[in-house]
Specification:
By secondary structure, this protein is an alpha+beta fold. It is 31% helix and 19% strand. The strands form six sheets. It has a six-stranded antiparallel beta sheet with strand order 10-11-12-13-7-14, with helices on both faces.
């Protein structure tokens, strides 16, 4: 915990001997109770130590912080919606017989045991969260009632203008769902009110059927950015306002009137015509709406990613993630046309050139045809969330000499060992996983390893998670750069029997225009009997990704890169020979038929296998923890640039 400078001064500790220094005056004490007082006093005197006798005359020592590393450090920070209030130090007067409360009772006075002074919540920080109103009455009657009323009236007008519902009398026995107003105060101070349905009251088969809606894949976005950097295309973004309100419902959904709507006829309810936020089918209806828009305007939907739309005549590409759109085209005129067309159909926000997307940050040097992709702000956010923003940096995300295993809790917990908070552990791993999926292939193996213990983490697993955070603290500015070289290709590797269950770890990395676009680190589903078999199975998994990327790149019109995506590098000669010909039959006849898929692709000349030395195998970073020099070499080979920033070794309150 964090202590204020004024709160570090402590008052003299009161011992039991001080409490029973003498008998209270004015209190009737029988003879047998006087003897008990004497015995208590004698025992207290015997328990005194020389240090305690000195403490009675000394003013007391400064209470140390709970964590020695926290002393003289900046206090833990919270987001702008919280207020940190630290109570003033309380001066506790010494307890004397004169201040002891007397009672007219024959009950003996026993000295109370001393309270624990160094509990984990000692010197606690009180947090007062700025509560958001839950009902319309609370919002309009609060201090910000005028602002909430303006935001609420704007939302009501938008619902009426959009024709969201019609007033009808419900059919007998039909389910009527509830709704409520959701009040949100944005980080920039704006007040936002939104009507949301209580989706838990919907009945499947009556109020909704299908709910699936596709969203853009990170791999598709990275392929798109790599091609944009190479071909010097325009790159912009737009946002759809109140996107879900544009979807038309196919089912008959009845809803109670929202709070604050006047002139409600008796026995009447709302029958929703358009989707609203909170309905289970709202994302699907919105996707169907925008899908019809693109088809009407000459776009074709990709068969590999249903969120990607291509207009070959005007050379425009659009990537959709719910209400966030990425627009790219060869000429500015085409960008202007698609923006105007979207604005005519929907209420849009023009965000200009693309700089952020789903927490990913994009920057360009158009004169050099370079584009960088990183998550610096997101990494700073999760470091602050876990109190690790100033932690001592680590050169690698995982100690290559550490072997983590999953063991029953009863056999691993030592008597004095601290248990690991399951929710905190899972939250930390989830935060790391999003960074890994976006722009950090260098932590893929480490995150995959610690995620295997989400069900029952032990202290050694928690230490491994903290090491990944310390690595991110030192490499928070690491970026994937496209355009620094024209190197493209695929790398596949495996670490035989590396798992606790003796299953191998396979991984691959795909490069396009000098930067990583796709990567994976995954434990294989069956036990391999040799390194050749493990590498062979890993190449099959990489071959499936090759086929997907080949079709995607072909649909994007980058035909020159299809051949580059056909080359797969491996560092095991036996696996390469097995993929070309059915050799070593006696030792390979047990291999499952699905893993011979790579051999079929080689024979069909859709995949070309090339040998790569183990020292140059980039995918090695996906299969094991590596020494610092090797880890840095492969990280650089994936197109990642940046420098290590050393922290000061400080852990803040709430640190992992």
């Amino acid at each position: 915990m964090v202590f204020d400078e004024t709160a570090k001064k402590s008052t003299p500790l009161t011992t039991p001997s001080t409490i029973i220094e003498s008998e209270p005056e004015g209190l009737f004490v029988p003879t047998h109770e006087k003897n008990r007082w004497a015995r208590h006093k004698e025992r207290a005197e015997q328990r005194k130590t020389p240090s305690e006798e000195e403490d009675e005359e000394s003013p007391g020592e400064t209470l140390p912080p709970i964590d020695p590393e926290e002393e003289d450090t900046a206090p833990h920070t919270y987001d702008k919606d919280t207020i940190v209030v630290r109570p003033a130090p309380v001066q506790v007067p010494p307890i004397t017989p004169e201040t002891t409360t007397t009672y007219e009772s024959r009950r003996p006075l026993r000295p109370r045991p001393p309270k624990e002074m160094f509990r984990p919540n000692s010197g606690q920080v009180y947090i007062a969260v700025l509560e958001k109103p839950f009902t319309l009455r609370e919002a309009l009657g609060g201090e910000d009632g005028r602002e909430w009323k303006a935001a609420w009236e704007s939302e009501v007008e938008s619902l009426r203008k959009n024709g969201t519902w019609v007033v009808v009398q419900p059919l007998p026995g039909r389910n009527i769902i509830g709704c409520r107003w959701l009040f949100v105060r944005k980080g920039d101070g704006r007040f936002k009110v939104r009507l949301v349905a209580k989706e838990y009251s919907q009945q499947p088969g009556i109020d909704f059927t299908e709910t699936f809606a596709p969203v853009a894949k990170f791999t598709t976005l990275r392929v798109l950015l790599a091609l944009v950097a190479e071909n010097h295309w325009e790159l912009h973004s737009m946002d759809v306002k109140k996107a879900f309100l544009n979807g038309v419902l196919e089912e008959e959904v009845y809803m109670h009137f929202p709070e604050g709507i006047d002139e409600i006829p008796k026995g009447m309810v709302c029958r929703l015509v358009k989707a609203i936020y909170g309905l289970r089918q709202s994302p699907r209806t919105w996707y169907q709406k925008i899908h019809e828009f693109f088809l009407t305007n000459g776009f074709m939907r990709s068969t590999q990613d249903y969120s990607l739309y291509v207009n070959y005549e005007q050379r425009i590409l659009v990537l959709v993630y719910v209400d966030d759109l990425v627009l790219t085209a060869a000429e500015v005129e085409e960008i202007v046309w698609i923006k105007a067309t979207l604005a005519d159909a929907f209420e849009m926000s023009d965000l200009g050139e693309l700089t952020t997307y789903l927490g990913l940050e994009i920057s360009r040097e158009r004169s050099r045809r370079l584009l960088t992709l990183h998550q610096t702000k997101y990494i700073d956010k999760i470091l602050h969330r876990h109190g690790m923003q100033d932690a001592r940096s680590s050169l690698t995300p995982l100690d290559p000499n550490t072997h983590l295993v999953s063991t029953p809790k009863a056999t691993t917990t030592e008597p004095n060992a601290k248990s690991v908070d399951l929710e905190l552990y899972q939250s930390a791993v989830g935060s790391l996983m999003y960074a890994m999926l976006g722009t950090r292939p260098d932590i893929a193996y480490a995150v995959g390893l610690v995620s295997q213990f989400n069900h029952s983490p032990q202290p050694e697993h928690w230490v491994a998670v903290k090491r990944i955070f310390r690595y991110l603290a030192g490499t928070r500015g690491l970026k994937i750069q496209y355009g620094s070289s024209n190197h493209s290709g695929a790398y596949s590797d495996a670490d035989w029997g590396a798992g606790q269950d003796r299953k191998s770890i396979g991984g691959f990395v795909f490069l396009l225009n000098g930067g990583a676009i796709s990567w994976a680190s995954k434990k294989q589903t069956s036990i391999a009997l040799s390194t050749t078999e493990a590498e062979y199975m890993a190449m099959t998994q990489a071959s499936k990704e090759i086929i997907w990327l080949q079709v995607l790149i072909e649909e994007l019109g980058a035909l020159t890169h299809i051949e580059q995506m056909s080359t797969l590098y491996g560092d095991n000669q036996g696996a390469l020979a097995l993929a070309h010909n059915p050799e070593y039959h006696a030792r390979t006849k047990h291999i499952d038929i699905q893993y011979h898929f790579v051999r079929e692709l080689v024979w069909a000349e859709r995949v070309y296998l090339e040998y790569c030395t183990s020292a140059d195998m980039i995918a090695d970073v996906m299969t094991k923890g590596l020494p610092c020099t090797t880890h840095e070499k492969h990280t650089t080979a994936m197109g990642m640039i940046g420098k290590l920033v050393k922290g000061n070794g400080t852990l803040h309150a709430g640190a992992c």
